[in-house]
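#help-structures

NK: newbie question. if I give both the sequence and a SMILES, will the prediction place the ligand too? trying with S-adenosylmethionine
OV: yes, paste both and it writes out the complex. here, I ran yours:
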Amino acid sequence: MDSIEQTKKYWNEIHNSYERADIVYDDWLDLFLDDINKCGLPIIDLGCGSGNDSKYLIEHGKQVVACDYAENAIENVKKNFPELIDAKCFDMTEGLPFEDGYAGIVIADLSLHYFSEEVTKKVLNDIKRVLVDNGILIFRVNSINDVNHGAGVGTEVEHHYFLNEKNGRYKRFFDRDDINKFFGEWNIEYAEEEKMDRYELLKILWRGKVSKK
Ligand SMILES: C[S@@+](CC[C@H](N)C(=O)[O-])C[C@H]1O[C@@H](n2cnc3c(N)ncnc32)[C@H](O)[C@@H]1O
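OV: that's the protein plus ligand as structure tokens.
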């Protein structure tokens, strides 16, 4: 099994089964509520997992497309959120199956930090392509200070990108320079390092909003 298949298997096991009532979201999207309220186009939840952000967006009356490469995640969001305008199963590293300018907003919550620099830039370019001209990408990514969740663990195969040999999975961790590097081709409208207490152990991450240049 290659690394992608191994990681996908991991996510399929995590996303085994959920009920809608069990899915809770934190308040991170509140900061961008003006943008979300104004958006009249579909919003793509990229790497939706259990669908916590999809749930938030649906409850705010938005047209949401939930996307993930884990089949179980997609089965669950289809079952739990009939309001979704679509739910798509695909690997974002192979391109996003949407026409140019399809979406007003892409939300990528903790889903963009698994790839090499080359692949991350490719994914970001494709996100840009599927966004309308004044579209935005809202994201959260691991911080280099996220020591409770593997920062610095394993072999650093690229700057701040680690392979944990124990589980065969790759993770990237960002500092301010990395944010500037990866989002250099975007207007960085907001990017701050923050603490998140959604998991059992405190998580340190970056929350950001970027728009097309
Ligand atoms: C940490 S979870 C975040 C899930 C959700 N956005 C949240 O914040 O709860 C990362 C998600 O990204 C998905 N993912 C990872 N690599 C992916 C890829 N190459 N293509 C599509 N989805 C991917 C995983 O299946 C998983 O659901």
